[in-house]
Design brief:
about 375 residues, alpha+beta, Rieske Iron-sulfur Protein, 2 domains, 4-stranded antiparallel sheet, binds FE2/S2 (inorganic) cluster
């Protein structure tokens, strides 16, 4: 059957899944209300010469078929092809999700690539098909629904006022001030509801943010393996590792404050604070081990990202979030970026078993400078 033959003669009403019943929205125009359709001048359908004949042209009904049926048929095939491609890509997405391994970084990359490409094709196929559908198969008209003013008419407004006043009288609300006032009193506590909501944000932190679980003698564990460490096992200059406090290595709440980076420098690279004592230059606050191993808080003093990068040639500790840079050889002083103060240093010592331990807690609050002011 040709395209033109398909359109000749009366088309019996058919219910198609996903559409209104025959004689509904488009059939009798009853849902169009007071509205009318207006074309934009493209194609036969919707072409009009002036505002006065548009209502007559469409008679309150939307055109059910596009003007160029041959073009519509071609568009239909393109739409169907797009949806079939989207379907096949969707099957590919499921197959990639189920079938591709993700046990290594490379395998995960391959899986992500396949999932991303197949999902993109699904969305592109659906989007392209919908675009062609709308532009070539749907009526190219604008519909306008006339609406009355939202204000009620005077009669209704008068009726409501009388009804309201009658209710105020018959409910005794105006006649019984005791009831009225106690009702208002009863609702007063509701005004405190926002205070309750604020209270539910949780207890105030108090001074808990000033302290961590580091204490004298607590051993340093290598984060991940949870092994204690001796200075001899950490002997390669330029090394940097993450450290957890023994006993709290699996406690993420405490680790969020107590994580430490341990850095090994070459002899002579660390600038130990010194002062003259009785004419002799002595070191102060030497919290390092062998003058080459030093520990700093891993929590950036800007807004708390974990500092994670170390340049062994320059001794720079870098925060990846906003590029704050700290000098590991010089008390982790800030040399670049928005951080306002050095990374707090964890005083180190070696215990009788030869393991690295903390001499004390940090002497400065860790994390963003905001807390220091709190
Ligand atoms: S959090 Fe480190 S620079 Fe901003």
């Amino acid at each position: 059957m040709s395209d033109m033959e398909e359109t000749e003669g009366p088309v019996p009403p058919r219910r198609v899944i996903g559409t209104p019943p025959p004689g509904g929205l488009l059939g009798d125009g009853s849902r169009a209300g007071n509205g009318h359709a207006r074309g934009d001048g493209r194609g036969d359908v919707g072409r009009r010469s002036d505002e006065s004949d548009e209502a007559e042209h469409f008679e309150g009904k939307l055109p059910t078929d596009p003007p160029d049926m041959a073009r519509a048929k071609r568009a239909e095939r393109v739409v169907a092809l797009s949806f079939i491609i989207a379907f096949l890509a969707g099957c590919g997405f499921i197959a990639a999700y189920v079938g591709l391994e993700v046990h290594s970084v490379d395998a995960t990359l391959r899986s992500n690539l396949a999932l991303g490409i197949s999902l993109s094709v699904v969305l592109l196929g659906l989007g392209f098909g919908a675009l062609i559908w709308v532009r070539n198969l749907m009526p190219d008209v604008e519909t306008v629904e006339e609406r009355h003013a939202p204000r009620s008419d005077d009669k209704d407004r008068q009726a409501f006022q009388e009804y309201f006043e009658e209710g105020a009288v018959t409910s005794q609300f105006t006649k019984r001030p005791l009831v009225r006032r106690t009702l208002m009193l009863a609702t007063l506590p509701l005004a405190a509801a926002p205070v309750v909501l604020l209270r539910d944000l949780g207890p105030l932190p108090g001074t808990s943010l000033r302290h961590t679980v580091w204490s004298p003698g607590r051993r340093l564990l290598v984060y991940g393996t949870n092994q204690p460490l001796t200075p001899a096992e950490f002997s390669v200059p330029g090394s940097m590792i993450t450290i957890a406090p023994e006993g709290y290595q699996d406690n993420q709440d405490e680790m969020a404050k107590a994580a430490v980076i341990l850095i090994k420098l070459r002899p002579g690279e660390l600038h130990i604070p010194t002062t003259y004592n009785g004419g002799t230059l002595v070191s102060t606050m030497n919290w390092t081990v062998d003058n080459t191993i030093v520990a700093y808080s891993k929590i950036c003093t800007h807004v708390g990202c974990p500092v994670a990068l170390y340049e062994q040639t320059t001794h720079h500790i870098l925060c990846p979030c906003h590029q704050s840079t700290f000098d590991a050889a010089n008390g982790a002083n800030v040399i670049f970026g928005p951080a306002a103060r050095p990374l707090p240093q964890l005083p180190l010592a070696v215990n009788s078993d030869g393991y690295l331990v903390a001499k004390s807690d940090f002497t400065q609050p860790v994390g963003p400078s905001f807390w220091e002011r709190g």
